[in-house]
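Below is one such protein, fold included:
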Amino acid sequence: MTTRTLAVVSAGLSTPSSTRLLADRLADAAVAALAERGAEVRTETIELREHARDLADHLVTGFPNAGLRPVLDTVAGAAGLIAVTPIFSASYSGLFKTFVDVLDRDALYGTPVLLGATAGTARHQLALDHAMRPLFAYLHAAVTPTAVFAASEDWGAGGASHELGERIIRAGGELAGLVAARPASSTADPFADVPDFTTLLSR
């Protein structure tokens, strides 16, 4: 059985952060739902704050450096993506948008994506629908019907409220369904059968 990878992208700016907490909860729910379907999966968590300078370098040079290239490859090659951002000024954070801006145009084409967002109050939850969904629709990703928003009051005594917990489980199940239905990508080298230049010259 092929082990699939779930890429988990967190744009939280602090350590610890509620954004990372939500990302971890969503990942746990998706992994559990995939396990129920008999699918083997591993998660790769990416903290964007650790790559802020790498992302800025990419913007001005047009090329990913050695620190950022593996991150972009992980996201592009993942069977599914969980993307969580804090909400600033009624939209995703600048760090999150910068990361999306440097992705290859077709990196998420058809990829199942679960969206999450955090903010201080529930007044910002509409940002999921008016900002994040259009962004990933533009990238031709397959976004789950359920997105998850968590305000500060949703984290009672370090745990998720009952309503938030149920939404996390539902969203994780939806992502698992999309990932399980998608054919596993081949890891074979597409250029393995291409002869090298010396061989071509000798013919």
Strands lie at 4-10, 41-47, 80-88, 91-92, 112-119, 142-143, 148-151, 155-156, 159-160.
